[in-house]
Structures are given as C-alpha cells and as structure tokens.
Amino acid sequence: MAGIAIVGLQWGDEGKGKITDFFSSKADCVVRYQGGNNAGHTVVVGEKSYKFHLIPSGVIQGKKVVIANGVVVCPKTLIEEIDMLHSHGIEPDLMVSDRAHVIMPYHRILDGAEEELLGKKKIGTTKRGIGPCYTDKIARYGIRMVDIIDEKRLKEKLDIVIPIKQRIFDSYGLGKIDEEKILREYVEYGKKLEKYVGDTIYFLNSIIDEKDIIFEGAQGFLLDIDYGTYPYTTSSNPVAGGICNGAGISPKKIERIIGVMKAYVTRVGMGAMPTEEKGGEGNHMAEKGHEYGTTTGRKRRCGWLDLVAAKYAVMVNDVDEIALTKLDVLDGLKKVKVCIGYEYDDDVIEKFPSAIDVLEKCRPVYEELDGWDGSCGKKKYEDLPANAKKYIDFISEWLNKPVGIISTGAGREDTILL
Ligand code: IMP
Question: Are 5 and 19 in contact (CB under 8 A)?
Fold first, then answer.
C-alpha cells in the first residue's frame, strides 16, 4: 500500500505514459498533480486509440483517476475527454479537485500575446494558457473549480478579475472581454463537471494507507519552474516533491519514485539543450522515435543522452530506480555518445548551471560507446545486444542508481523488468 511517483527526468515526453500504464494496471488510483492540457498521451487498447491531455492514465482500465489541486484545468478539454469516453461506453471514475485552478479564455489569449511580445526570446509554449493561469493563482485572483460550480461565486470572482485583465488587454490592444459570455460559458461547464468535483485532498489521504496510488508526472524535471532551464520551462513543478503541493500528500507517504528517461534526449519549444544534434543522428532519433508532439504536433529537438542533466535530476528527485525508455530507437547507430560534462570557459563543469546564458554556452564533453542493433522488442535482459547492455551499465554506474525497467518498443509487452 503505497504512493508511487512516476516522474520525467528530462524535458518531458520521456515515455511516462507507457510506464504509468504498466504500473496502473496493478494500482487502485492514478493521480495527476501538476500541469494541464499542455501534456498529452495516447493509450492504445486493441484496435482503439484514445488521446488524453488531462485525464490520467488508467481510466480505460476502470481505475479511479484524480485531477488534483496542483493541476490547471481547461474545462472544455476535460468535457471533450469525458464525452469521448462516454462515446466508447466508458463512464470515468474521475474526481477533480475543487481547488484546481481553471484556465479561462483570457489566459489563452494572453499566452499568445506574451509570446509574441517576447519575440526572439519566446518560450515556445503550447499556447494553452498554462502560464497565465498559474500566474493568476499566485496573484490570488485565479478562478477555481469550486467557483465554476456556483454561479454567484463565479460572478463575484469575475467581477474582480475581469477589470484587471481588461487593463492588460487594453495595453496589448486585445479588445473587450465579454464577462457575461464567459460567465454563461463557464456556468455551463460547471453544470457538466459538478458531479466529478470534490475534495481530492481528503479523498487521497483517506485511501493512501490502504491503496496503491500512482502519481503521474506531466512534462519533466528540466521543465520544472524551480529546477528547470528557467525561463524556458513550464509554470508548474513536475519534480517528485511537486506531488506534496500538487496533491496534498505528505512526503512520508511516497514510498517509491521511478524516474523515467529516454535513452537520448528531446525537447519541444525553445531553450538551451547542450547535446542537441541537428544533423544525421538527431534525425535518426526523430524519425525512428516518432518525435512529434502529442499536443501541438511540433517536431521535437533530439540529441544525445545528457548525464550532467540526468545526475542533477536524479539528485533532486532521489529516484529509487530509472525506467530507461526507447532504447530501441538507438538501434542501428555505429557509435552512441553520452554527455558526461560541460566545457565552459576553459573549464569542465559537472554541475547543471542555473543561468540560461551559461547553459547556452556549454559544450558537451562526450564519452563514445559502441553502438548496437536488434534491441527492438526484446523482453529479457539476457537477449539484449552486448553493447546495449554496456550502455545501460554505463548510465547506471554514472548515476549510481539501478535501471529497473527498460522499454524496447511501443507495445506494453516490449518491456524488460530487472
Ligand atoms: P507551457 O507549459 O505551454 O507554458 O510551455 C512551456 C514549455 O514547456 C514549452 O517549451 C513547451 O514546449 C514545454 N512543454 C509543455 N508541456 C510539455 C509536454 O507535455 N511535453 C514536452 N514539452 C512540454
């Protein structure tokens, strides 16, 4: 009976969905604790494929799924996902936190406007209004789920926030915000979602000693607002510690932390990425790994595994084990590289820098290993090519953590447990 955390150690898209799916089959409940519909994952069951941006994994398997207080909820997206499940004859066993903040139309508009103003320095957000929604949460005039299920409360909140937003809209030349239209739209959302809204904090704490709960991270550690490549980050805390804030769970209740990382790195959006490979091998990773965003369809930037960044991620998350995904994508390369340090100002540094301009100037120091072929679809460690095993051992020794799970293909069965 435990809380199990599944967190991404890179810039998101590490394959957490597959690992969560694997564990959720044995769990009682799956919880999202941060982010919003900037994330995305596809679940394939038999012939059917389901795309989700908000609802946690495990919903198809009939598990209890929880959208906790740290998530920002786009009600329209959530209703679309619920309707999609209904159309397949599935009633989700879903609970959405009454404290979760709600993405409003002005958040999406401001996300786009701010990106435009940033020009060359834009973050490359998903334009889903995530940053502006978290901004309002911290500024203390956010709208929460508990507000949209009560028209009077929602009206009172909108009366406070709309004049503030209108001033910002005016300065950007964005036109008039129609408060009445927003009120009507969100009251309707509230009516549709009311039956799912509840106090997830009391609920999760009432079951955590008896049930197995998976806490499913969205995005990844290097996109964390506190630890990531700021300002090229998301606006929430994907770090394992984010579970405590984002779901109202004591650190004492998280018994196992699984850090998911790909055998190489990818990133969507802007920001430094020292091991990025713009040429041949980067294209090999992008094509073989189908590295195109689930949410925006953007091609992901690809590069060699960065163990400086990974060591930092492993330290802060203190993972119990590593789930290494997409090993098969490196099949067929003669040599594979791993970054073990950064060259900066005639020095070699092994600490991940805090300033983005420093990271931008870091040049990777590589260890080159022999490549392999034929890891794809392997289900037993013994059957992996010798050089693939050497690669895994190198990673495990460098990070001083066991690699407990290896993914060798998209299918649920293409998984090695050690
Ligand atoms: P935002 O979360 O939409 O504000 O975007 C901020 C940064 O995080 C951008 O670089 C996005 O591309 C990135 N990002 C947000 N969500 C994901 C994700 O689920 N996977 C990978 N990158 C993401």
Answer: no
C-beta of 131 in contact with ligand 1 (< 6 A): yes
Between CA 396 and CA 42 the distance in angstroms is 29
What is the rounded distance in angstroms from the CA atom of residue 212 to the CA atom of residue 143? 31
What kind of architecture, by CATH, is found in domain 101-195?
Orthogonal Bundle (1.10)
Closest by CA position to 340, among listed 409, 279, 275, 263: 275
Residues of the chain with CATH 3.90.170.10: 3-88+201-417
- Is 13 designated active site? yes
For residue 372, the surrounding DSSP H or E stretch is none
Contacts of 240 by beta carbon, 8 Å cutoff, 6+ apart: 5, 7, 217, 254, 257, 317, 318, 319
Residue (of 213, 288, 284, 231) closest to 1 by Cα position: 213
- Model confidence pTM above 0.70: yes
Where helices occur in 225-363 by DSSP H, the ranges are: 242-247, 280-288, 307-317, 356-361
Q: Which residue minimizes the CA distance to atom 16 of ligand 1? A: 38
- Find out whether the beta carbon of 110 lies less than 6 Å from any atom of ligand 1: no
Interval between CA 234 and ligand 1 midpoint (Å): 6
Write down how long the chain is.
418
Host H or E run for residue 337: strand 335-344
Compute the chain's Rg from CA coordinates: 22
Q: Which segments of 104-217 are extended strands (E)?
A: 197-198, 213-216
For residue 284, indicate whether it is catalytic. no
Catalytic residue, candidates 41, 53, 101, 284: 41
d(CA 9, CA 261): 6
Mean pLDDT by 10 residues, the chain (418 residues): 92 93 91 96 80 92 96 98 96 98 98 96 96 98 98 98 98 97 98 98 97 96 98 98 98 97 96 95 96 85 98 98 98 98 95 97 98 97 98 98 96 90
Which part of the chain has CATH 1.10.300.10? Answer: 101-195
**Are the beta carbons of 40 and 177 closer than 8 angstroms?**
no
3-88+201-417: CATH topology is Adenylosuccinate Synthetase; Chain A, domain 3 (3.90.170)
235 touches ligand 1 (CB under 6 Å): yes
